[in-house]
Amino acid sequence: MTTVINGAILSKEIRANLHEEVLECTNKYGRAPHLVVILVGENPASISYVTGKEKACREVGFQSTIIRLKENITEDELLKQIDELNNDDLVDGILVQLPLPRHIDEKKVIEAISVSKDVDGFHPINVAKLHLGEKCLLPCTPKGIMTMLKSINVDLQGKNCCVIGRSNIVGKPIASLLVSSNATVTICHSKTVDLKNVTNKADILIVAIGKPKMITKDFVKPGAIVIDVGVNRVDGHLCGDVDYDDCFDVCSAITPVPKGVGPMTITSLM
Ligand code: GUN
Question: One of 120, 203, 228, 241 is an active-site residue; which one?
Fold first, then answer.
């Protein structure tokens, strides 16, 4: 029987536990943890993500502030805003929603955020620490995926893992976390030759390619665990990078879209 790893249910449990922790933290330090999210411009997807983060903060009892900046804000003004937040002792986490308008250098902005307040885990020092296997702020989607794998008690040691997608936000960091858990990891991407030959050997297949329903059952080793990071809108409906219905009977566990990795990403941010 196939296990559905439901990120919405898992998120609810984690957020309830977090709420308790936040209450303890608030009693101890006299205030709730405070997340500041900077939203530049009016990208509809970014607005929707930021709204989700604000809702999650409310659920767990964090203080949250959304700083909405105009699309035409200069890079210097944005960097100045980040500097103020870095130096504000009443701010614990800073997140600049990406993508930024083209006239702003994202790399410069990410590097301006204090390493200890970089809740996205995008700062080069946090990235380096992750690859060194040191304690650090982790990027949220890979952290969420690891939590989902833990929820079904997978022993990762010696498992063949295939990650499709080599992004800095998902593919590379999840590969690193899996290696740190003693898995054997192959990262595939658009230039990989004979993708199926690799995916068919994977005990755990993680798909983050942004191509709706690309992964069908012929890519999946029988009994594999399939984690679908994709969020695509097709004909008004959300679907993943994995053809869920086609793959369902072949795998031992699978994440749905929606209610899969998505909610776990925001929960991991909390
Ligand atoms: N835009 C899409 N995903 C993310 C994310 O995880 N963090 C930030 N800061 N921006 C995003």
Answer: 120
Nearest to 64 by CA among 93, 86, 107, 44: 93
Beta strand 237-239 with 232-234 is antiparallel
For 28-111, strand residue ranges (E) read 34-40, 63-69, 93-96
* Minimal-distance CA residue to ligand 1 atom 3: 98
* Residue 97 appears among annotated catalytic residues: yes
116, 68 contact by CB (below 8 A): no
Q: Are 45 and 73 in contact (CB under 8 A)?
A: no
Long-range contacts of 23-27 (CB under 8 A, 24+ apart): 23/61, 26/61
Q: What is the largest CA-CA distance in the chain?
A: 57
Q: What percent of the chain has pLDDT over 90?
A: 100
Report the pLDDT value the prediction gives residue 62, as an integer from 0 to 100.
98
The number of the ligand 1 atom at minimal distance from the alpha carbon of 265 is: 6
- Written as six digits, the tokens of 15 are 């957020």
Helix, strand, or coil here: 228?
strand
Question: Distance (Å, rounded) from C-alpha 87 to C-alpha 78?
Answer: 15
> pTM to 2 decimals?
0.97
Residue 220: both structure tokens together: 């999946």
